[in-house]
Each structure stands twice: as structure tokens, then as C-alpha cells.
Amino acid sequence: MTSKQTFYVTTPIYYPSNKLHIGHAYTTVAADALARYKRLSGFDVMFLTGTDEHGQKIQASAEQAGQEPLEFLQGIIDWIMQLWERLDISYDRFIRTTEIRHTVVVQALFERLIRQGDIYLSDYEGWYCTPCESFWLERELVDGKCPDCHREVEFTKEESYFFRMSKYVDQLLEFYEQHPDFIQPESRKQEMINNFIKPGLQDLCVSRTSFHWGIHVKSNPKHVVYVWLDALTNYITAIGYGSDKPEEQATFEQFWPANVHLVGKEIVRFHTIYWPIFLMALGLPLPHKVYAHGWLLMKDGKMSKSKGNVIDPNVLIERYGRDAIRYFLLRDVPFGQDGVFTPEALIERLNFDLANDLGNLVHRTVAMLHKFSGGVVPNPSEEAPSPLDEDLSNLARSTIHAVEEHLEKLEFSMALSAIWTLVRRANKYIDEAAPWALHRTGDEVRLHIVLHQMVEAIRVITILLQPFMTDFPRAVRAQFGWSDEAFAWAAAHDFALHSRGNTVVEAGPIFPRLDIKEEVEALTALTGGPLKEAPSDGEPKPTANRTASTEVVKETSGSANNAAVSSDIPGIATIGMDTFAAVELRVGEIVSAAKVEKADKLLQLQVHLGSEIRQVVSGIAKHFTPEALIGRKVIVVVNLKPVKLRGVESNGMILAASEGERLELVTVPSDMPNGSVVR
Ligand code: ME8
Predict the structure, then answer these.
(1) Is residue 299 included in any domain, yes or no?
(2) Which residue among 18, 48, 52, 89 has the greatest number of ligand 1 atoms within 8 angstroms of its CB, and so is best to mutate?
(3) I want to staple 606 with a disulfide (CB 3.0 to 4.6 A). Which of 17, 85, 542, 592 is the partner?
(4) Whose Cα sits closest to atom 16 in ligand 1?
(5) pLDDT score, position 573
(6) Which of residues 464, 493, 522 is at a domain's end?
(7) What confidence tens digit (pLDDT) does each residue in 636-647 have?
(8) Residue partners of 230: CB distance under 8 A and separation at least 6
């Protein structure tokens, strides 16, 4: 028996009523990055994904295709598995809810729950949304339609089994209380309590008689198990719960409870209310965490087949490679928040981060090794390192800590941002250490130290990129010839002699630079039509009060509040409170500052905002030296769209007052905590 610590991560099981899109790839790539990170840091990992194959929607799709459900499903399952292979998804198990190992256990536990009195037979009257497989009360409908997807709902009355949710409410609230990290991000917990639990948790309908494609209730086979009880139990049946095979039972004992269920925010309710209650009824321990990430939106709102705005990940993988897509998905949008997919953002990331920063670092290093040292990593002399060398090596040694800290909190974007700080520092080191000049002046001792430092920085970066990308680390490792020991995760702590004497192979650029205009046009054509400009109200609006707390849509036009009337200051129009409230201001502390190359006015700042460190590029270099800014408390606009200034990403703006030549930072007393909200 292994004594390693275990880690169990799941994705939702996706509906195979259609092919999947990049929204599904998003969750799966995130789960893969987490699974890879945990494996690299020594855990015994179980990574589960799969498909949710029952229900009316699947039955209808199969009928439409003129096929039997299983025949219809097989084509899509093959497609999904191929997609995961193309994205290098390292799942350990794939569950299909039509598998016998799942269905027999669901049937058995349903009977047990009837016997226990947790499930009872009654009549259901209410509104049913077929695409969402959800029942709604009259009061929950919005304009008579489904509050989630805004489609038509059907009034239904039929005999159904119900799960006695109310019995477990107090136990659930107590569990939340004792496990404050169970629902992440934190804001979702209040949403669950205020919008679903406090108004009175309804008993849940857990069977249907109006369609037959599902798991039949053993003692009353005209009923099929309503999808959520069937679907959620996949997380235990897939790893051996209820199995009669001893090795499967052992797997269940080893991995349950799950460490984290990754889900999109629209199904957090099922995972944080119904799932824990089902488990309580079964007397099983509850998962440690449910993490609800945000949606990847298109300019015209949420992706959906019926809108025709979905993107097939295969199109992107074929054109840019899987690493580029994996990187983009994890880097561009902070996990937990919504983000809009645009071809422009994708191409900019690929050009700036991958081609200019990372690809260029490797390419120029290899070229210089060949030019100045015959393609062999030199053995550096034992001369004391210069402050420049130490600056790089200290940053490299500390980057693993930042990456680990962020990954533990599922902050994929910030983990990548920490790696990119090192990538950029390494590129800057090359510019500053200027190996070509050392070669020209014949300073072999320094040249060897510098070349060696460059390679070590790349080694650390490549190790740390393994959770996120798969082809790049494999290729670069082979190119630089690092041993298992040199390439172990923990070896990213050292910045030492892991590479000396290695022969480095020349290769073409790994990430080519792309022509943005050409690519946007090509992507538009390939994704089946114009990626439309958003209408001003194009994003999904908060619907019933149950979603309002998390999907705040700020009014920016049209209300009387916002009409442009003049203020008392001549020439300045007044704005409404809504417009002002749309700007998020926070207190930040400048923790580092450096000049931006070839830009006299720009400084690149790292600003501590309490929960994160943001990079902001500010046009204040004429007014302050970098050193004079360290430790200053400033006010930061934190919800500006990121921009690139001279190729450096800026994620916010700091406020300053100016009068003629004079410029002063807007500041607060030094004891004001970082991250404080400014109103
Ligand atoms: O809900 N942005 O399946 P599903 C981000 N079978 N993530 C997205 C997304 C988007 N635009 N679109 C989809 C189901 N997802 C049930 C789950 S689990 C026991 C049963 C991802 O095919 C996200 O993870 O509708 C979301 O929760 C999931 O796909 C929904 O997949």
C-alpha cells in the first residue's frame, strides 16, 4: 500500500448531447494543471472526468439524429476522448453514467434512500426546463422563462420521487460553518445561503416518468432517476463506491473524500447543497472543496450551440498547438471570474507572452550557446556572483514558492504571472549582462557565468511550466538534456550546477509570431461566422434574485442617472452614481519599480493589493526614480482592461494629481491596509 498523500480532483461530467466547446476545455485544462502539479509535487493523484449520459436532452438529440441513444453517444464520446488526448489531459479515470458500474450502484443507493425515508413518492407540479434539466417554481421564473437559460419552460405534473432535503438543512449549515473553505470563491457561499437555503430549501424531485432514457428505479421501473442524483454520484461510483471488487473498494477508501470538485458557477448549487446532502444521507464524508469558476463568454454572451457562437477547441489546437491554448485558457482570465474570449486577446497572448517573452528567451539562449561556447553549457568559474547574477538567481529560487502558493489556491493566472516575471527578468538579464560584449572583449570568465545563468533560468522556468503546458517542457528538456534529477519539481528550488556540460541542440522557434489581422480574420472564418460585437446589453443579466449577488451587471448607459447633464464645473458633465461605482479603486503598496526599456516615460510597477500583486505600467518615470516609489501607498484602478505598453502588460492604473509640470501621487496614510476599498 502506498504511503503517499492522495489528491482527488474532478471536473463536471459533461452532457454529450453535442460536441464540447472551449468552455468545457477550460474546466478540464484547469483540472489537468492541478492534477499535474500535485503529481509533480509527490501526491498520488486521481483525476476524474467523464460524461453525463442520461436525461431527456440526450434522448431527444439521439432521436433527432435517428439513432439509438447509445449509438449516438458513442460518436460523441469518441470525439470527446480524442479532444482530451489532443489537449494532453492526463485524466486517470473517465466515467460514463451509462456504464454498469455506475448504474447498479445508483439503483442500489436509491432503494436504500427509500428504505431510510429520505426519498418518498408524491406528485410533482411545476415548471421544467429541458435544456437545463431543471425544475423551477413559478416565482423563480423570469418573464415566464427559465431563469438560467431564458428558454421556454413546460408545466409538468407527474408522479415523482422526492428527496427530503429539509431534513438536512441544519446539518448542512453546520458543515459550512465548520468548513469555511468548502465553497470557493467565498462569495458563492453567501449566495447559496441567502438565495437557496434561507428562503426554505424545497424537497428535490429525483425521478421522472415522462421519459425513459435513464437509470430505472428498481422497485418502480416506470420511474427513471432524475439526472442530478444520477450525475453527482459519478464522483463516488467512478472510484469504486459500492463495487464488489476489493481493489475498487480500496481505491474508494484511498481517494474519497475528493479534495476538490471543479465546476462552472451555474452548477455550484447542485454541488454545494444537493451533493453534500446526498452524501450525508449515505453516511459518507463530504468533499473538502467545491470551486466554482467563472464563465468564458463570447462578445455576445454565454457560448451556446443555439446562438452559434461556440468555438471548437480543435480549430484552435490545429492552428496554434495545444500548449498555446492551454496557456491562454489558464492565463487570460483569473480563475473564478468571467472573461470574454476574443481572437485579439488570444493572438496578443501568443505573440507577447509566448513568442516574444518565452520563445525568444529560449531561442536567443540556444543561439548564443552555439555562437560563444560550441553548443555546450559552460562550467562557470567559482568567482563571486555579481549583484546582477544574484538578482536573477534569487528571483528564480523564489518563483517556485509563488507558483505553489497560487496553485494551492487555484490561482492559475497568477501562478503563470509569477513565472512570467522570471521569464522577463531573464530576458532583461541577458540585455544587461550582454554576453555578446563579453565575447567581444574576451572576458571568458564572465561570459561563462552569464551563459550558465541563462540556462539555469530556463531550466527553472521549464520545470515550473509543466502543470500548464506539456509539449514545451518536453521539447525544451530534450533540447537542453536535463536529467531526471535536474528536472524534478523540487529542483526548481536550486539555481546551481544542473546544466553544466550539457550539449544543447539547436531548433527553430517554438512559438512563431503571428500576424494579428490575418489571424483574427482566419479565426472568424474558421469559427463559423463573425464573432459579433457585443450589443450594449449583450452579457447575460442577473435574472432571478438567486443570481443577482454574483452576476452583478453594472448599468453604464440608458438610466436617468447617467444622462450627461452639466455639473457645476464648467465643461464637465455630471455622471450618475452607477457610472462612478463601476470604477473599482483599491489601496495598493508599490513593492517594486523598474524602468521600461526604450520608454523614457514608463515605469513598470508591482503593486501589492492585499490579496495579490499586480503589475501596473505607469507614465511617471519623468517624475520619480524607481527607488523613490518603493513602499508608497497609492490608489489603484483595479478593473481596467489589461493593456500592453511597449510590450509590457499593465493591469490597472495608479491615480496622480497634476498641475503643469508637477505630478503627485494620490496617497493614503501608510497604516491603511493594502487592498482597502476606496469609495
Ligand atoms: O452541467 N465557460 O454539463 P455541461 C466556462 N452534466 N465553463 C464552461 C462553459 C463556459 N462558457 N461552458 C461549459 C452539466 N463549461 C452537467 C454536470 S456534474 C455532476 C454534471 C463547463 O455539459 C463548466 O465546468 O452543461 C460547466 O459547469 C460545465 O462545463 C457544464 O457542462
Answers:
(1) no
(2) 52
(3) 592
(4) 14
(5) 54
(6) 493
(7) 998 888 888 888
(8) 52, 54, 97, 106, 214, 215
